[in-house]
Amino acid sequence: MFDKVLIANRGEIALRIHRACREMGIQTVAVHSTADETAMHVRLADESVCIGPPPSRDSYLNVPAILSAAMITGADAIHPGVGFLAENANFAALVEEHGFTFIGPEPEHMRRMGDKIEAKALAVELGLPVVPGSGGAIEDDGEALKIAREIGFPVLVKAAAGGGGKGMTVAETAEDLPETLAMCRREAKANFGHDAIYLEKLLTHPRHIEVQVLGDGRGEVVHFGERDCSLQRRHQKILEEAPSPALDPATRLSIGETVTEAMKKLDYRSAGTIEFLYEDGAFYFIEMNTRLQVEHPVTEMICGVDLVREQLRIATGAPLGYGQDEIASSGHAIECRINAENPESFRPAPGRVSEYHAPGGLGVRVDSALYSGYTVPPHYDSLVSKLIVHGTTRNECLMRLRRALEEYVIGGIETTIPLHQRLISEPRFLNGDYDIHWLEAWIEGADGPAETEDTG
Q: Per-residue b/e over 283-308, b at no fewer than 16 CB within 10 Å?
């Protein structure tokens, strides 16, 4: 086992990794920007190193500074967390080249899955169902129009290197397509450094279903069921639950087996998530996240597994050590992402936390690095807490979540707690009757999915 792990991240996920390490007897090194010198993960870690000023490019994306911090502290391994460098294949390779263990997948798997075009081609090789589309980068507008007419409008134009909801634009008709292509190329170039784009058929009322896997890099892979992440705003997840209200046991078993077999063929190592759109009883691969997910606690709550602990153990070279038949799912879990934002305008609301009280009780978990007196900096993602609740049934889980949200106090800053309180009283959500477009329509005051204004 490792003696010391450097955590190349911040906020609640850095604290989450620290806790797993400490429970395994591993010392931790926190890296931080000058804006995070009073952060909880910095205060609790065995050692901390300042790696730069507040802008991410000068600190949490500063690879030389992170590697130097690992060297001077004598770390054995580096855990990238989520976001920042977590899916950067070049960073993973550099970590290994400098003699540290990268706690995550093989750099080559990250590289192949990081390019959306190659990932889709690889998915086909691995036997995963995919959305009808171009199958590769679009070279010219004429080719795009031909493909779009074959698969049918509306179509989704996507950046090959996109992610996190960026680099996606809808063309409703053939007349819209030229400008949509040009716009997407510009955005791809600006956000990702190159303008490769591709086309996919736009599904009008899908759910977003993802399957959690864990592999040991020796051909052994298991899955931990699915998460339903359909409640999204501008392609950003707001609330996740597991299991999905939309799947029956046979469908759940089938997609789990399909994903497991695909990852065995890939000889995948560490935690990963395969994301699908699900519509009319069919799954369509959209991407794979070769890292830990923000919503991983939902899976942990229903399966009783510590995914970060498993990542650490596998990174030492240990075999998986258990099979699919030893993984059992129990009950229902829901995660609310709580952001430091105005709950109506969604404008970021950084500032000083004047009082803080987290809810508790049976089946309630809070992953947050907040504390009374802490100042939420304006430089980073606005996610400040994850409230995760478990119950024996979905209804029990919902009642417990309602109570937990009532208890949760974060004073001094605006948060999206009121949004979640409204959401969990909405009949469409209570009935599990929603798709990836429903939440935005509901926020805007509509009664259901805006079928004529899909944004993908």
A: bbbbbbbbbbbbbbbbbbbbbebbbb
Active site residue 291: yes
Q: For the beta carbon of residue 214, count every other beta carbon within 10 angstroms.
A: 24
Tokens 């931790």 appear where? 28
Which residues in the chain are classed under CATH 3.30.470.20? 207-443
Report residue 335 CA to chain centroid gap.
12
For the structural domain made of 132-201, what CATH number should be given? 3.30.1490.20
Per-position DSSP letters for 33-65, written without gaps between them: EGGGTT-HHHHHSSEEEEEESSSGGGTTT-HHH
Q: Which of 261, 256, 217, 219 is nearest to 123 (CA)?
A: 261
pLDDT one digit per residue (tens) for the chain, 456 residues: 999 999 999 999 999 999 999 999 999 999 999 999 999 999 999 999 999 999 999 999 999 999 999 999 999 999 999 999 999 999 999 999 999 999 999 999 999 999 888 999 999 999 999 988 887 888 889 999 999 999 999 999 998 877 656 778 899 999 999 999 999 999 888 888 888 999 988 998 999 999 999 999 999 999 999 999 999 998 899 999 999 999 999 999 999 999 999 999 999 999 999 999 999 999 999 999 999 999 999 999 999 999 999 999 999 999 999 999 999 999 999 999 999 999 999 999 999 999 999 999 999 999 999 999 999 999 999 999 999 999 999 999 999 999 999 999 999 999 999 999 999 999 999 999 999 999 999 998 844 433 323 323
Beta bridge partners of 130: 285
Q: Which two tokens stand for residue 115?
A: 């390019």
For the chain, how long is the longest CA-to-CA vector?
A: 61
Query: Distance (Å, rounded) from C-alpha 283 to C-alpha 264?
Result: 19
Instruction: Tell me, yes or no, if the pTM score tops 0.85.
Output: yes
Query: Which of 16, 291, 313, 337 is the catalytic position?
Result: 291
Residues of the chain with CATH 3.30.1490.20: 132-201
Query: 329 and 303 in contact (C-beta within 8 Å)?
Result: yes
CATH superfamily ID and name for 207-443: ATP-grasp fold, B domain (3.30.470.20)
